[in-house]
Specification:
By secondary structure, the protein is α/β, with parallel strands linked by helices. It is built from 12 helices and 12 strands. The protein is globular and about 60 Å long. The protein binds nicotinamide-adenine-dinucleotide and thymidine-5'-diphospho-beta-D-xylose.
Length: 356
């Protein structure tokens, strides 16, 4: 799919963590595209994340709910959308354990609404159209230590309401391709880190708490393993797959960068203490082992060989540099953290960690 022609791309969830990097990447790199960001602005969506592109002539924001089929239909029709990059979702596993129905509504029904709107609006005229569904490695379930990393043919085996909702949405995307011929691509990515991640997720939560000298809640024994990728490497991979991925295919995206949670937290302590000129090991005392997450997946690891082989994508940022830059970013953006963690988030935090 040529990237030189004019296009109108609808990015859903563009005010969230990964979505804001995707929007910025496309707005800047493709000035001849119109980029429409549709986002409901839940607790996780924040227009401050896009302050640097909000006035760009090829960008516009629409507040809307992917759960509302009529709104999605009219957006696609009125704006003559020819590409969709679908990121809008409830994304936090712990929240999914508290409110699984919300995850089914947004992640399953929201995706289905968009698929249906695209099917109706494009009505068989598939040429030059594409629906890119952004999914997660969590759909594959959990690995034992030493087991081969997830590939695109690993059977789905989700454990949390979050991963079950994402798996279900992936199945609907494939069903629309196989049944109606809708031109789709899917990407399943590992854990992202970087600027603008909501501080309920492990890395920003720990950076914030180390700065504030608050306890660092580590679920279980801290031996769970995640495969970390810088969010801008993810945005670049989405660009490659959106433009050049094969129709109907899935591509795994990952950093080949596995870390135990406890080791990540120790790394963050070292980086933050260093930045603040504290003595070595000053914040070690903040490490606090708390009750494990229910159904906590032991290990995720991604085999991204298909993406490398077919599209030449490899991550550009080393973890050492990426994590150091991320720590600095959070420390220099204390206002952003304060703004997004006020009000509703504070209540959530008290509920989640109050008696843990
Ligand atoms: P996020 O929670 O930071 O952002 C989600 C965005 O979706 C927010 O802006 C929110 O306002 C919006 N949203 C939620 N419900 C909506 C609705 N009903 N209608 C419209 N907008 C709505 O999430 P994220 O971490 O940026 O993840 C984005 C996508 O990438 C998700 O689909 C997630 O499953 C997937 N993903 C995330 C990771 C990760 O490590 N964060 C890894 C792999 C895949
Ligand atoms: O306080 C915490 N303590 C802790 O030990 C938190 C918030 C997390 N953890 C653990 C749980 C996980 O093993 O750290 C690991 C990472 O947790 P999260 O940051 O919540 O991410 P995870 O559950 O792995 O899911 C993330 O990656 C895949 C994203 O939130 C998903 O949206 C994405 O699909």
């Amino acid at each position: 799919m040529a990237d030189s022609q004019q296009r109108c791309i609808l990015v859903t969830g563009g005010a969230g963590f990964i979505g804001s990097h995707v929007v910025r990447h496309f707005v800047r790199k493709y000035p001849h595209y119109r980029i429409i960001n549709v986002d409901q602005l839940t607790y996780a969506g924040n227009l401050e994340n896009l302050a640097d592109v909000q006035d760009a002539p090829n960008y516009c924001f629409v507040r809307g709910d992917v759960g509302d089929l009529e709104t999605m239909r009219s957006l696609l029709r009125e704006q003559k959308v020819d590409g969709i990059i679908h990121l809008a979702a409830e994304s936090h596993v712990d929240r999914s354990i508290c409110d699984p129905l919300l995850f089914a509504r947004t992640n399953v029904m929201g995706t289905l609404n968009l698929l249906q709107a695209a099917r109706e609006c494009w009505s068989g005229q598939w040429e030059g159209r594409r629906f890119h569904h952004v999914s997660t490695d969590e759909v594959y379930g959990a690995l034992e230590p030493g087991e081969a990393a997830f590939s695109e043919t690993t059977p789905y085996s989700p454990h949390s309401p979050y991963s079950a909702s994402k798996a279900s949405s992936d199945h609907f995307v494939r069903a629309y391709h196989d049944t109606y011929g809708l031109p789709v691509v899917l990407t399943n990515c590992s854990n992202n880190y970087g600027p603008y991640q909501f501080p309920e997720k492990l890395i920003p939560l720990c950076i914030h708490n180390i700065c504030e000298e608050k306890p660092l809640p580590i679920y279980g024994n801290g031996e769970n393993v995640r495969d970390w990728l810088h969010v801008q490497d993810h945005a670049q991979a989405i660009d490659e797959v959106f433009h050049r991925g094969r129709d109907g295919e899935s591509y795994n995206i990952g950093g080949g960068n596995e870390w135990r949670n406890i080791d990540i937290v120790r790394k963050l302590i070292r980086l933050v203490d260093e930045e603040l000129g504290r003595p070595v090991g000053y914040s070690d005392r903040l490490i606090t082992f708390v009750a494990d997450r229910a159904g906590h997946d032991l290990r995720y690891a991604i085999n991204a060989e298909k993406l490398r082989r077919e599209l030449g994508w490899v991550p550009q940022r080393s973890f050492e540099t990426g994590l150091r830059e991320t720590v600095k970013w959070y420390m220099e953006h204390a206002d952003w953290v304060r703004n997004v963690t006020s009000g509703a988030y504070e209540r959530y935090y008290a509920e989640m960690y109050g008696d843990r």
